[in-house]
Automatic annotation (TrEMBL):
This is Helix-turn-helix transcriptional regulator. Pfam families: HTH_31 (PF13560), MLTR_LBD (PF17765). PROSITE patterns: HTH_CROC1 (PS50943). Gene3D superfamilies: 3.30.450.180, lambda repressor-like DNA-binding domains.
Amino acid sequence: MDRVRLAEFLRTRREALQPEDVGLPRGARRRTGGLRREEVAALSGMSTDYYSRIEQRRGPKPSEQMLAALSRGLRLSAEERDHLFRLAGHATPPRAPRGDQVSPGMARILDRLEDTPAQVVTHLGETLRQTPPAVALMGDQTRHTGLARSLHYRWFTDPAERLIHPEDDHPLHDRLFAAGLHDAYTRDGRGSRAAAIVEALLEESPAFAAVWREHPVLGPACPAKRVRHPRLGLLELHCQTLADPDRSQFLQVFTARPGSPTEDRLRELSPIGAART
């Protein structure tokens, strides 16, 4: 716990918040801007003495419940809340999942890639949106429902899903998908969708359980890969990834080395259309 920086952070956020921001009257006798300590305490559901001691660097270590109350009272952003927890010596709390809506920034970029294999996926491997060339390359991955929406889940439970990559590459993908779920489970915690996928796979897939026990760690977010296409043959692709600020969504763009046979074949994806659906 960093008492000095915690106190300074709370003070700066208290002074930056105006009475009008939280529905309080300013009053004619208020001489300075910002909220008073007693106002922050009331908004956070704690005593003025307790809050004052923290800001004066002499209070006890706040519990996670108290920090959550302070975050609400001070109207902190998610990033500010995480910073507050770290200053107080606690792990940052999990964030609520965004859902299936592609972020506006990702959507604008994807709209400009209509002639390129590209897609937006979640940190669980759930495909939210694809360009037509991406559908032609890998099939319509947005059609799945339930746990099967996650590519991580399908990889270990649906034999047809594994046909897209050469068999020699399967051990690499086993580790990549298991590492992705380890990362998601650590981030989202028990009771999350990530936890549900992990629990289902531990019951349904001995192959997943074996790799899971090794605790693989994520490397590149989207490494180079070989894809076997039914009409174009074996494609050697590079994957460039753009992460949204909260790392809940990723834009994947598939390219080929200039002048390579794969680059020539990728140009045929648009005429092929949804051949893999």
